[in-house]
UniProtKB/TrEMBL annotation:
It holds the Pfam family Acetyltransf_1. The lineage of its organism: Bacteria, Pseudomonadati, Bacteroidota, Chitinophagia, Chitinophagales. It comes from Chitinophaga hostae. This is GNAT family N-acetyltransferase. It comes from the Bacteria. Transmembrane segments: none annotated. Residues 3-170 form the N-acetyltransferase domain. InterPro entries: Acyl_CoA_acyltransferase, GNAT_dom, MshD_Acetyltransferase.
Amino acid sequence: MTPEFRKAKEQDATQIWSILEKAIARRKADGSEQWQNGYPNPEIVESDINKGYGYILADGETMIGYCAVMINDEPAYADIKGQWLTDGDFVVYHRVAIAEAYLGKGMAQEMMRQIENYALTHHISSIRVDTNFDNKGMLHLFDKLGYTYCGEVILAGAPRKAYEKVLPKK
């Protein structure tokens, strides 16, 4: 199976929110503080879709996962305690969530590979991302996929671990 990575549509919003709700519950069950303060929420999903930031990973009509992908659009990254690996354009992604039925099947890695392809098709070789200090799953993925820890950024008033991956130019 090679999943499709595509822009989310308005009619996807309910299913996206369902995936995010379950991910929020998993974060809580894992003892993580991430996503435990009313964010993300259905309004964020709607905004992502309206701005063209929302992307889904799908197997036909079945939604596998969701994320928001932007170019040069994370103001908090300008004030890093540390240093980014590159200057210039970057792709940033947030709100990565995989549907329960697809957990443990490498779909978060697949989504991140798709985001890398997205960056390269936009002639961008830098991907920046952040996560909570206690999100063990994402921290493991960043390590596994060759991301470099660059320092801390503050998002929503809380420190977050910031990472960058520099892609080989094709």
